[in-house]
Amino acid sequence: MERYTEAKYRTLHEANENELERLRGKSAESPWKPAYHIHPQYGLMNDPNGLAYFNGEFQVFYQWYPFGAIHGMKHWAHVKSADLVNWERLPAALVPVEDYESHGAYSGASLEVDGKLYLYYTGNIKYSAEERSANQCLAIMDQEGKIQKYKNNPIIEGVPQGYTGHVRDPKVFEKNGRYYMLLGAQRENMTGAIIVYESDNAIDWSFKGELNLQIDFPESVYMLECPDYFELDGKDVLIFSPQGLKAEGHDYHNLYNVMYAVGHLDVEALSFVPEHFQELEKGFDFYAPQTFAGKHNERLLFSWAGMGEIDYPSDKEDWAHCLSIPRELGLVDGKLVQKPSVMLKQLRAKSETNSVTIEAGSVMIDEGIGQHELEFNFDTENADVFGIELFASEKEGLVLEFDCSSQAVRLNREKFEWAFGGEYGFVRSSGLKIGTSVKVQVFVDHSIAEIFVNDGEAVFTARVFPENGSNGVKLFTDQKMTCSYVKHELKQGITR
């Protein structure tokens, strides 16, 4: 069948003379470029891929379209770090030049096998704007860092019977002496699923069947993307990204959402028995997370700090999106919590401790900060409503509000309507047991804020594109209260 052609389906090798230099130059001076978040120098990034601690370094790959802030021919870009803080940009790891990946090297994960890093990914194939297929492919990274595509790709050709061409995002793991591959999939009746392949050698794969998640999804869920699996504190954990969920209470207000389930996986019986499941993150810009084992076998997570189908102000500068900071995962009372990796403390250049008493109203505690970390401890005994306003100025502000009466925390970016429009709403929220004190840890990096409440009980990621001068930090309350806080100025971690 003839392949679909369109201008956006070209690779780095097809760049015009000086085109990449012009793109790099256009976006280089953007005031919204992060200082320590992984981001593209130019073009569009999305899902983190192939995450690993391999050969003494952290390897991070990500989806990348070089030629502008649109979803076109996806490559795998590559950065590495010895410490999760200082990142080195490397040449593109995967450029989709082969027939089995004719319309992009889509997302996937990695697994160390016999001293080499196996990089699994989906080769996207398009026959028309609507009709597609998918191949599962392999590239291998050796101890010297050289990456080569497997000579007998694809390792899985096409999709199994009963599923559409939307089969992608391989997650491979070893369990009980065998290798298993989870894939996000769409059934022919347009509902979402996770399917499983198995292998003796991590190269030759056979279809095993569909995983029974024992979660009652509504029929509106038409795809389960980006499956991730790991063991944590004796429990099995699945993370996946359902598309088509409807908003309900505090949950699922984004265009696309992320869930996790804690329970027991019987991969031989194709069964996952959940003990608990819920939405993973409460912010506006969090999707397609992937986890991996860190240097000390801690479970680390990166996510795409963006959202599909939404225009961002940086698009006009021909770059878009970034990754979250690395987060360490843990289980508390059977629920998954996310905390900033302790290795991020290396970013701190200068720290200052303060305390403030706030009368009913608000007080500005800092101005003009572009990249920083803030740690707050609120004494909530008297207040009913209190909170923090980031990126604050006379016109703008990202408002984190705690409401003791409703036992909830809300993040509001209505003052940035100019940047995002209102189609997907301005408020994200979470239920929260608010006691006599509340802890908040915030990472701000020019155009992104990541907020961790009560050691990761609730987490919000939000892209914010402030105008010049909108960098203040304000505290507010409806009753007199005290707040102690620490401000950390943070260093540069990656080339802008």
Briefly say what this structure is.
The chain is an all-beta fold and 496 residues long. The protein has helices at 19-28, 417-420; strands spanning 43-54, 57-65, 75-81, 88-94, 110-113, 116-126, 132-141, 147-149, 163-175, 178-187, 192-199, 206-210, 223-232, 235-243, 259-266, 271-279, 287-293, 299-305, 319-320, 322-323, 327-332, 335-340, 348-358, 361-366, 371-379, 385-392, 398-403, 408-412, 427-431, 437-445, 448-453, 458-463, 472-477, 481-490. The chain is globular and about 70 Å long.
Strand order of the largest sheet: 23-34-25-30-31-32
Content of β-strand: over 45%
Unreliable sequence segments: none
Q: What name does CATH use for the topology of the largest domain?
A: Tachylectin-2, Chain A
Question: Can you identify the CATH class of the largest domain?
Answer: Mainly Beta
CATH architecture of the largest domain: 5 Propeller
What is the mean predicted local confidence, pLDDT?
Answer: 96
Strand tally, please? 34
Number of domains: 2
Number of helices: 2
User: How many angstroms separate the termini?
Assistant: 43 Å
Protein name: Sucrose-6-phosphate hydrolase
Catalytic activity: Hydrolysis of terminal non-reducing beta-D-fructofuranoside residues in beta-D-fructofuranosides
InterPro entries: ConA-like_dom_sf, GH32_Enzymes, Glyco_hydro_32, Glyco_hydro_32_AS, Glyco_hydro_32_C, Glyco_hydro_32_N, Glyco_hydro_beta-prop_sf, Suc6P_hydrolase
GO molecular function: beta-fructofuranosidase activity
